[in-house]
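[recover] target loaded
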């Protein structure tokens, strides 16, 4: 089935999809809150709050998105990040990820995923499917999403350590 929209317009609508949905939810909620009575007033205000939270999340995702069209494909499945490319690639389990680096010294800039005892996985920022990495990175314990997005917007030509796993204290006895 063909669309009546040009591909450029479809890409822009897809890019701003979260914000458009949040605005619609918030507008419906505001309409209900101001024009109805009883329980629907409270449902309307609840939709305004939900729309605002969804808009905040949408702004973060919008800041994370980069232009696609780079080499390789990123997939995320069951806590595992896979990057496939013609000359490079790799697999990292989220539980084994030790260091996350944003490397602007390379061309194109890339995410560097380090894990103990394995080769580093270098994922270009413009690889297909890198938008899926936002949710994965946001789930890392102690990662500051705002700082990650700020570092992503600054291209200073250096490598930036975005996140590093806390090491267990040496005096703790482990059972496994």
């Amino acid at each position: 089935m063909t669309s009546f929209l040009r591909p450029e317009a479809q890409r822009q609508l897809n890019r701003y999809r979260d914000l458009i949905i949040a605005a619609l939810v918030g507008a419906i909620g505001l309409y209900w809150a101001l024009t109805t009575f009883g329980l629907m007033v409270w449902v309307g205000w609840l939709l305004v709050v939900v729309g605002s939270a969804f808009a905040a999340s949408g702004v973060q995702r919008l800041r994370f998105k980069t232009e696609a069209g780079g080499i390789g494909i990123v997939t995320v499945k069951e806590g595992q990040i896979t990057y496939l490319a013609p000359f490079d690639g790799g697999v990292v389990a989220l539980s084994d990820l030790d260091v996350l680096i944003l490397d602007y010294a390379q061309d194109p800039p890339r995410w560097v995923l380090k894990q103990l005892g394995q080769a580093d996985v270098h994922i270009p920022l413009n690889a297909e499917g890198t938008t899926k990495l936002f949710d994965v990175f946001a789930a890392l314990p102690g990662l500051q999403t705002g700082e990650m997005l700020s570092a992503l917007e600054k291209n200073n030509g250096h490598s930036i350590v975005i996140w590093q796993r806390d090491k267990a204290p040496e005096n703790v006895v482990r059972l496994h």
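[recover] notes: The two ends are 55 Å apart (CA to CA).
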